[in-house]
């Protein structure tokens, strides 16, 4: 069966699941415009049809994926090639985040659809954040099925995707809500400082101490130990991939729902310099803010007054909301799937610094077999020019690399390999060009 025959066969088989998907989506969104019990039931049914149709369509499209053409025709697709559909999707995603953050009253009808699930998990009505968590988790699960089928030839990607789906569903959605059901703090065990920046704020410690017991003591221990003890150890052995590609919800959305847009990341040197110029100051800002809050708490506000709190609110607004949400996800179809991870995430900066200087993780290359096809660089979501390293047979040791392994997966010659090796001699440049590249890391 040639390509045209395959296309005709797929178009015929995919017609029904596409109808279910779009019809389900339209039904699910009805509460935004109409409000009644009947509309709510219709909307809930719509979510079910949307999920069924999406997974059915994904199964038909990717069940027989050719591992040699994983990204076939990606630059001809309306959604994945910055065409009109991509701009429309970007506008819709951005508008959703703006409404969610600042005008949640317009989502009331949609929020009420999640009341049954909210009562089941946490014993009270849903709010805008439960709606967001539910939709976020649903996106990762549906697109996680897509990733499992698309990259079925790679055990690494299959296990990584299963890990992402598990941590998002269990630790980032179900468990925090179940804790709330039992009157415990709504705690997210898969997030920690500085990504979940307020977990090390004095007020967070005070709120946890209002719930005496072994569980809250464990939460305090978990927050501190994971931030300053477990993170350096795990990063030493596995690089930042242990978190950014296997655990993190932000990375999980990028690796699943954001996979069609990974090739859109800017690979230019200016983008690399901009990345370094932004991400480390963000880390410095939240570190300073945390320190100031603790200092002010120790002196009971006698030194800084409300100034340190102003730092926290400023960071939360510009970085926690606008950058990570509106830009970080809303701009997927235009700038790629890792804009937040690459340019703004303070935890990525922290992990990247550890990976650059101390980790055993690197991607090794075999320059003698490289045919300069450029697949590795094209599909690197972090904007790394992998081909430059591969052509010279140099190991890739970059602070930005999240160890997703996509470069190795799309390489037709097996030139690239993810490895953990001893860190000796990691930064000995062998040429002026290489030295300049390392200098701006």
TrEMBL record:
The chain crosses the membrane at residues 14-33, 39-60, 85-103, 129-149, 161-182, 218-238, 272-295, 315-335. This is 4Fe-4S binding protein. Pfam families: Fer4_5, Fer4_9. GO terms for molecular function: 4 iron, 4 sulfur cluster binding; metal ion binding. InterPro entries: 4Fe4S_Fe-S-bd, 4Fe4S_Fe_S_CS, Electron_Trans/Redox. It comes from the Bacteria. Residues 361-389, 393-421 form the 4Fe-4S ferredoxin-type domain. PANTHER family: FERREDOXIN-TYPE PROTEIN NAPH.
């Amino acid at each position: 069966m040639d390509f045209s025959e395959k296309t005709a066969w797929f178009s015929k088989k995919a017609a029904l699941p596409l109808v279910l998907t779009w019809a389900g989506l339209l039904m699910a969104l009805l509460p935004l415009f109409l409000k009644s019990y009947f509309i709510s039931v219709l909307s809930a049914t719509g979510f079910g049809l949307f999920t069924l149709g999406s997974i059915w369509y994904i199964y038909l499209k990717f069940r027989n994926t050719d591992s040699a053409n994983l990204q076939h025709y990606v630059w001809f697709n309306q959604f994945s090639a910055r065409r009109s559909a991509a701009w429309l999707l970007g506008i819709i995603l951005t508008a959703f985040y703006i409404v969610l953050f600042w005008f949640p009253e317009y989502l009331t009808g949609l929020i009420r659809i999640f009341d049954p699930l909210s009562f089941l998990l946490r014993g009270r009505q849903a709010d805008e954040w439960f709606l967001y968590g539910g939709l976020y988790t649903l996106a990762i699960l549906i697109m996680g099925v897509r990733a499992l089928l698309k990259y079925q030839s790679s055990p690494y990607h299959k296990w990584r995707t299963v890990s992402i789906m598990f941590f998002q569903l269990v630790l980032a959605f179900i468990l925090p809500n179940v804790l709330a059901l039992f009157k415990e703090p709504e705690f997210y065990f898969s997030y920690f400082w500085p990504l979940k920046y307020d977990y090390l704020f004095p007020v967070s410690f005070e709120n946890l101490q209002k719930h005496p017991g072994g569980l809250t003591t464990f939460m305090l221990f978990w927050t501190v130990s994971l931030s300053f003890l477990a993170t350096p150890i795990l990063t030493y052995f596995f690089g930042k991939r242990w978190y950014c590609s296997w655990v993190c919800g932000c990375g999980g959305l990028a690796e699943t729902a954001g996979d069609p847009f990974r090739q859109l990341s800017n690979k230019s040197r200016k983008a690399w310099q901009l990345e370094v110029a932004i991400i480390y100051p963000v880390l410095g800002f939240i570190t300073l803010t945390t320190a100031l809050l603790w200092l002010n708490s120790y002196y009971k506000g006698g030194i800084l007054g409300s100034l340190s709190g102003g730092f926290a609110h400023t960071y939360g607004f510009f970085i926690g909301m606008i950058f990570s949400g509106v830009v970080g996800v809303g701009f997927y179809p235009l700038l790629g799937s890792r804009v937040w991870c690459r340019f703004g995430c303070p935890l990525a900066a922290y992990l990247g610094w550890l990976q650059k200087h101390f980790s055993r993780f690197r991607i090794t290359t075999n320059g003698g077999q490289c045919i300069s096809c450029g697949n590795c660089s094209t599909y690197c979501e972090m904007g790394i020019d992998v081909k430059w390293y591969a052509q010279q047979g140099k190991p890739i040791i970059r602070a930005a690399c999240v160890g997703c392994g996509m470069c190795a997966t799309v390489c037709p010659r097996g030139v690239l390999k993810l490895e953990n090796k001893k860190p000796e001699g990691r930064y000995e440049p062998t040429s002026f060009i290489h030295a300049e590249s390392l200098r701006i890391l």
